[in-house]
Structures are given as structure tokens and as C-alpha cells.
Design a protein that fits this description.
Length: 192
């Protein structure tokens, strides 16, 4: 898969650079007459190509994920996915699942906690209303440092952002578990 990943990366970087040059050297579209509707449409579509390409890469990631499970078992050790996941987040900084999966892989079996933390912080900056990324950050902290007190605010934030009742109930129970762990760490201090 490495030659394919390299080819995809080169193509994606070229696409991003070409899009940047096109946007930089294009006329402002708000002053175009209605006769130039086609140009406005092409300009809008060029910006969306990055999102489309990110989704196409995600389909590839999903395919590789299932192939890896079939042949090797533990998909979270498939380091070949990480460059593709990173490319997805560069192409579409609002692709929450790519940040989430990469954060899980990095902080889990790969034990690259600091890298996971940086990636998830970037994801949260780009997607401040994503309960999934706050939850994954809390999980990464627990996996990496076992610091329940530091992880707790991320779970509380995830709970405040979750819209689905199933997720809210699950996160509420998880917050209670983390509070108990905090009390076990330091029984004299009360949980926040």
C-alpha cells in the first residue's frame, strides 16, 4: 500500500497547491455579472474538490481497514492508514471521523500519546462543536497518562455538546465513572 499512499499524497498535495494558486489568481466573484455564472460555479466547485477528495480517501481508508482486519487482525496497528487519515484532515479540516480514528490509533496500541493529543487539539480547534473529538481527547489522556482529573473536563464538554440521547446517556455514565476514579486517586478531594 505504501506506493499507493505516496501517489495519493503527491496527487493531493498537487491538488491543494493548484487550488491555492487558482484561488489566489482568480478575480473576485462578487463583482461578476450574471453572464459569468458559469465562472462563479467553476470557482465554487474548485474549493469543494478538497472535500470530495477527502471523502474519496475516506472510502479508501475504510477499504484498507477491512482488508487489514481480514489479514492481520488488530486494525489499530495499521500504521499505513495514518498518512491517509492525516491527508484527509488537511484536505477537509472538518472531517471529524478522520481526526477521531487517527487519535484512537495514535493514543491506543501505537502509544504515541503526544502526537494524538496534538492532532486532537487541532481537530477540536477546527470543529469546536464536535462531542466526538472532546470524548476522544479525554480517552487519549486516560490511555496516555491515566490522569482522570485532566480528562474529566473533556468528557463534560462532550456531554454538553452531544445531541443524541443515547450519546448523552453514555457520556453521563462515563462522567460518573471518571468522577469515581478521581475520588479513588485522591479521596480527600471531591470531584468537580
Amino acid at each position: 500500500m505504501k506506493p499507493l499512499a505516496a501517489l495519493v499524497a503527491v496527487f493531493a498535495v498537487g491538488t491543494v497547491l493548484a487550488e491555492g494558486l487558482m484561488c489566489q489568481n482568480s478575480p473576485p466573484t462578487e463583482h461578476l455579472s450574471s453572464d459569468n455564472a458559469a465562472l462563479r460555479t467553476v470557482m465554487a466547485m474548485a474549493g469543494q474538490f478538497r472535500v470530495v477528495f477527502a471523502n474519496l480517501l475516506w472510502i479508501k481508508v475504510d477499504q484498507y481497514h477491512h482488508e487489514y482486519i481480514e489479514h492481520h487482525g488488530d486494525w489499530s496497528r495499521d500504521t499505513d492508514l495514518l498518512p491517509l487519515l492525516r491527508m484527509i484532515t488537511w484536505l477537509d479540516p472538518h472531517f471529524v471521523q478522520a481526526y477521531q480514528v487517527a487519535g484512537f490509533m495514535l493514543s491506543g496500541s501505537l502509544h504515541r500519546y503526544e502526537h494524538a493529543r496534538q492532532l486532537l487539539q487541532e481537530g477540536i480547534r477546527n470543529n469546536p462543536n464536535s462531542f466526538e473529538l472532546y470524548e476522544e481527547m479525554g480517552m487519549a489522556i486516560i490511555r496516555g497518562t491515566k490522569n482522570y482529573r485532566e480528562a474529566y473536563p473533556y468528557f463534560v464538554k462532550a456531554l454538553s455538546l452531544a445531541k443524541d440521547e443515547f450519546d448523552r446517556n453514555r457520556l453521563r455514565r462515563f462522567c460518573q465513572t471518571v468522577q469515581r476514579k478521581m475520588l479513588e486517586e485522591n479521596p480527600t478531594r471531591s470531584a468537580n
